[in-house]
Design goal:
Number of helices of chain A: 12
Shape of chain A: elongated
Radius of gyration of chain B: 27 Å
Helix content of chain A: 25-40%
Number of helices of chain B: 14
Distance between the termini of chain A: 75 Å
CATH architecture of the largest domain in chain B: 3-Layer(aba) Sandwich
Number of strands of chain A: 21
CATH superfamily of the largest domain in chain B: P-loop containing nucleotide triphosphate hydrolases
CATH topology of the largest domain in chain A: Rossmann fold
Strand content of chain B: 15-25%
Oligomer: heterodimer
Number of domains of chain A: 3
Strand content of chain A: 15-25%
CATH class of the largest domain in chain B: Alpha Beta
CATH architecture of the largest domain in chain A: 3-Layer(aba) Sandwich
Radius of gyration of chain A: 25 Å
Distance between the termini of chain B: 80 Å
Largest sheet of chain B: 9 strands, mixed
Largest sheet of chain A: 10 strands, mixed
Largest interface: A-B, 78 and 75 residues
CATH class of the largest domain in chain A: Alpha Beta
Shape of chain B: globular
Chain lengths: 442, 590
């Protein structure tokens, strides 16, 4: 810790909890950073001269006569092109042994973009994964999480999407990432030769949980620098936002706030929105796209974290294991990309929207047939055909190991329609059926 | 509001997020506005609690860097909006700042912009004549604001009766020019220009009477018009879990509803959704007038990342603007997406004030606050005999999609129409996902609304609506029986009953909001389709076994849907109509 001249040093802490401490101090600004016993802390409450600080690394071992120094500044990050290819901790300090970053010091968690200065997201992101491209197409400037149980391969899918998305920069914000997962990301990006495009801010499970609260702001401050100042396409990966929320609830609990649903703070919606709403398409071409992970417990999406997230983000992606084909698929029922309407049938082929809807409707028919079968009823001919269709659809399109371009996905879907159904059963607008139904071409 | 003219000042003594404690040197009023000095900017705040000389204010901005000792200046008035010509087509934030006047990409703390245009000239036409007796809200003259005839009124704050001394001649005037002089009974004269101010948390009541609403408002959405119609001046709410199409439905209403002015309040929702309106509405054409949709739309937006306290203000700002236009004899549709975010803003503040919480940590008076807000909508007879209306439709975002939560329950008590969005329908892509059985419109029970429908839509329209609803219910029951007993365990009749409900569902309820033609359906078209569908349900068909039922109805539905996708009364439309006819004749019992 470096102290500067003229800085007042306080040495009398009056109150200590597990995550906060209080002292008498004057001239302190709200949300100002400070050092308590050499640990980074932030002002969270001021009542007259009584100042409460949140100590990120926890208060273990802090004595009442510890040195407290206020920096006079909100949390900041030094930004410049030097950030590329580097790994940082939650405070923005290098953890890869490299030198400190030289650059302009910027406030993190800064103001929002004026809505009238935003542009409507409009660039299709092709990932090659049909479960995403065909049914839940992503668009630059979008924010979307994976809702997944902890055992699902969301980090792998996220890394695949990141690498195929052709972003200028990929910024990884790791919160409570296990060391193994951190190394996994590092290896995947390294093997793809993409390390110079990657910037990482990582809080691993080895680090104190409250530190996580700094990670999204750090990652997004860097993202804003590249997207706004440099006009680049930036993809931000945030994993895992449930662990971030847990840290929020720890702090609010220590501050004696009345918890709302699922012991989360009442401000959870606003707290999460502040992060996710940093996703933006700038008129000058730069963009920030956020792909996050929200882990669920036992698939429960009514828990406060996924629930509030769902209201903020522009859709959500669900992964599920399809026992019929033994592969992980992107669940077409529960997944949704709200921005797909902006690009499908416009930047992709005209039949995309109707093919997507018809396939999902037929897939739903198959699910109903399956229920019927399980209940011991006879299946009609249509039911049988729907179930056959569902199997091929899952295997050829929904599985996460698919990697084909969007037109191929549509052709594949038409092929499956032709194989299993009549035109009336598929019920797509006639003008499209005439043009794309495969039998005419045979 | 206070007897003393001297401004009250204070200093900041405490800061907890955006709740700031101020020690004051004079009188302050509840809900009074004050400015806190921080560096070179002034942060706007509102008084929400007073204990002794400690005044608690909620700041409409981030308080980062604010220190105890900062100076505070109280303004002597509550949060007000500025009313006058130039509101239509504007993009405001929750405090009515004109967002387009802010130059930087990022919002600058403490930057406040004037909501109207002082330099713009308006073509003024006088209405009132010298010697007329007038009261607050009386029309003195009018200017054309796009297609809207914008009345210049006696300011709502003027409580007495006045005599018009003079009104200026027709001509071009700016909003600050005097357009009339009026005199009170003591001979004191007042110069009236085109601007007036009004506190947002008080309702504008410059009207004679507020009867029960009875005129049905056309929305072009079949699931509303043909099943649960809403009235001009009516209230409705749309609760639903995320991903069920609340926002798509609200946007469809904003695009198609038969109203003079649409005010969209984006309250704590996604910025990209507002951007969608910014981008699309200037391009889209209003089918009724041929003008751009933007010419009749005003946006008040406090997106989820904008300061929380201003979120609460945004719904009131929207409502007050709506009341101002209603007083001009216009039909206004006010949409708020989402009122749950507003309730959450109330909760955050109540929490910081350390009030004892009610259910789910919401403030105890939540229900009263919501009811009070919904009651500001309505159909009115103005003092001059003209009518005006505010139709209000709010969305609710229930936590976990569970309708048994305080915001949904409180809203259900206040709103007369309920459009429940159903997760299952959304999952199977049956959009709009309005549940036909759970949803209701209380207006269908109003005799005056029934009379209106009889006279304007069709003699038996209400009966037809009821029949369609009944078909849906019977279909659902039949489906349950089929699921329990199996396809061949029930009489064929059950299958037919189920497919009747599917017919109503697919042809009437479901509508493609993204299809150019299907997205909006005229009332004439809706009545024709309803007749056709009911007609099929009244017809006897020959089926050998249940296996024939499904393919037959699927084909019929498919042809009906092609009709929905074809331009009304075009050749294609008639050819699909013939196709339906042909399919029906094949099986019709002789």
């Amino acid at each position: 810790m470096e102290t500067q001249a003229f800085q007042k040093i306080y040495t009398k802490i009056t109150n200590i909890t597990k995550a906060t401490c209080s002292l008498n101090a004057t001239g302190v600004g709200n949300e100002e950073m400070a050092f308590v016993h050499g640990r980074k802390a932030q002002v969270v409450k001021i009542q007259g001269e009584d100042v409460t600080l949140q100590v990120f690394a926890g208060t273990e071992g802090i004595p009442t006569n510890a040195e407290v120094v206020f920096t006079g500044k909100p949390p900041t990050l030094k930004v410049s092109d030097e950030l590329a290819g580097r790994f940082f901790d939650a405070y923005g300090d290098p953890m890869d042994g490299g030198p400190a970053i030289e650059g302009e010091e910027r406030e993190t968690g800064g103001p929002s973009v004026n809505p009238v200065r935003r542009m409507q997201p409009s660039d299709y992101i092709a990932t090659g994964i049909a479960g995403i491209d065909l049914n839940n197409s992503l668009v630059t400037g979008q924010k979307i999480p994976f809702f997944a149980d902890p055992d699902q391969p969301f980090n792998q899918v996220m890394a695949t999407v990141a690498l195929r998305a052709e972003a200028d920069k990929i910024i990884l914000g790791g919160m409570g990432l296990t060391n193994d997962d951190y190394l996994y990301f590092k290896n995947v990006f390294d093997n793809a030769g993409a390390l110079d495009r990657i910037i990482s801010f990582v809080n691993t499970t080895d680090n104190p949980p409250v530190e996580r609260l700094l990670v999204p702001d750090m990652a997004l401050a860097a993202a804003e620098y590249f997207a706004h100042d440099k006009g680049q396409k930036v993809l931000v990966l945030l994993t895992d936002m449930t662990l971030y929320s847990d840290a929020l609830s720890i702090v609010s609990n220590r501050m004696d706030q009345i918890p709302s649903k699922d012991s989360m703070p009442g401000s959870l919606y606003s707290d999460l929105a502040k992060i996710y709403e940093k996703a933006v398409q700038f008129p000058e071409g730069g963009s920030i796209t956020i792909i996050a992970v929200t882990t669920l417990s036992g698939g429960d999406i009514t828990h406060a974290v996924p629930d509030n997230t769902g209201y903020i983000t522009e859709g959500q992606l669900f992964l599920r294991k399809d026992s019929d084909i033994g592969k992980v698929i992107v669940d077409p029922f529960r997944s949704l990309s709200r921005l797909k309407q902006l690009v499908i049938g416009k930047q992709t082929r005209e039949d995309h929207p109707q093919v997507m809807n018809a396939a999902i409707r037929l897939f739903a028919d198959a699910a109903n047939a399956k229920t019927k079968l399980e209940n011991g009823f006879d299946l009609s001919d249509y039911d049988e055909r729907a179930m056959d269709f569902a199997k091929s659809y899952s295997d050829a399109l929904l599985a996460i190991d698919v990697n084909i371009d969007t037109t191929q996905m549509l052709e594949t879907a038409w092929g499956l329609f032709d194989k299993h159904f009549t035109k009336a059963e598929v019920a797509i607008r006639q003008s499209l059926t005439e043009k794309y139904w495969p039998e005419g071409k045979k | 509001m206070k007897a003393n003219d001297k401004k009250t000042n204070g200093v900041v003594t405490g800061i907890i997020a955006n709740l700031v404690v101020v020690k004051v040197d004079g009188p302050v009023a509840q809900n009074e506005i004050c400015y806190i000095k921080l560096d070179k900017s002034n942060l706007m705040a509102e008084v929400i609690k007073i204990t002794g000389d400690k005044t608690f204010v909620q700041v409409f901005e981030s308080t980062r860097g604010l220190k105890p000792g900062a100076e505070v200046e109280f303004q002597g008035h509550m949060l007000e909006v500025t009313l006058g010509p130039g509101i239509v087509s504007k993009n405001y934030d929750g405090l009515q700042n004109d967002l387009d006047k802010m130059d930087s990409t990022f919002l600058v703390r403490g930057e406040y912009t004037f909501p109207l245009d002082k330099e713009r000239e308006w073509d003024f036409e006088p209405i009132a004549k010298a010697g007329e007796k007038v009261t607050a809200g009386a029309w003195l003259g009018a200017v054309m604001e796009n297609r809207i005839k914008h009345k210049i009124m006696v300011p709502f704050k003027m409580a007495d009766q006045y005599t018009v001394k003079s009104v200026v001649k027709a001509g071009k005037y700016k909003i600050e020019d005097t357009i009339a002089v009026i005199e009170d009974k003591n001979g004191k004269t007042f110069d009236i220009n085109m601007i007036q101010k009004w506190p947002v948390k008080q309702a504008i009541t410059a009207f004679k009477e507020k009867p029960r609403p009875f005129k049905v408002m056309e929305t072009g959405i079949r699931a509303i018009d043909s099943l649960n119609p809403i009235t001009e001046g009516g209230t409705g709410f749309i609760p639903g879990p995320f991903g069920c199409g609340k926002t798509v439905l609200q946007h469809a209403l904003a695009k198609q509803a038969d109203a003079d002015l649409i005010i969209v309040t984006a309250c704590g929702e996604r910025a990209n959704e507002v951007v969608e309106i910014f981008t699309e509405f200037p391009e889209l054409v209003d089918p009724r007038t041929g003008d751009k949709l933007y010419d009749r739309t005003t946006i008040v937006c406090n997106t989820s990342n904008m300061p929380v306290a201003a979120r609460e203000a945004s719904v009131y700002t929207g409502m007050t603007l709506a009341e101002y236009y209603r007083a001009q004899g216009l039909k206004v549709l006010l949409l708020a997406d989402s009122t749950s975010r507003w309730a959450q803003a109330l909760r955050e503040m109540s929490n910081r004030l350390e009030e004892l919480p009610g259910q789910d940590a919401f403030p105890m008076d939540l229900s009263a606050t919501i009811a009070n807000f919904y009651s500001r909508a309505g159909f009115v007879y103005l003092n001059n005999g003209e009518t005006g209306a505010i139709t209000f439709i709010g969305t609710v975002s229930p936590a976990g999609g569970n309708l048994k939560e305080p915001v949904t329950e409180s809203t259900a008590k206040a709103a007369r129409c309920f459009y429940a969005l159903n997760q299952e329908r959304a999952d199977s892509k049956r959009y709009p996902a309005i549940d036909p059985l759970d949803s209701y419109s209380k207006y269908l029970e109003y005799p005056e609304a029934q009379d209106y429908l009889k006279a304007n839509v069709g003699e038996n329209w209400v009966e037809k609506i009821m029949e369609a609803k009944n078909l849906l219910l019977r279909g659902k029951e039949a489906k349950e029986q089929i699921n329990i007993l199996g396809d061949d365990g029930v009489p064929i009749d059950y299958h037919i009953r189920f497919w009747h409900s599917e017919l109503v569902d697919f042809v009437i309820l479901q509508q493609d909001a993204f299809d150019e033609i299907d997205s909006s359906s005229s009332m004439e078209r809706q009545t024709i389709m309803m007749d056709k569908v009911l007609n099929v349900c009244h017809t006897e068909f020959d089926f050998e076994s249940f296996e024939e039922v499904t393919p037959f109805f699927k084909e019929v539905i498919n042809s009906f849907r092609q009709m929905n996708y074809s331009e009304f009364k075009s050749d294609k439309y008639y050819s699909f109509e013939k196709e339906v006819e042909a399919k029906l004749s094949e099986r019709r019992t002789a």
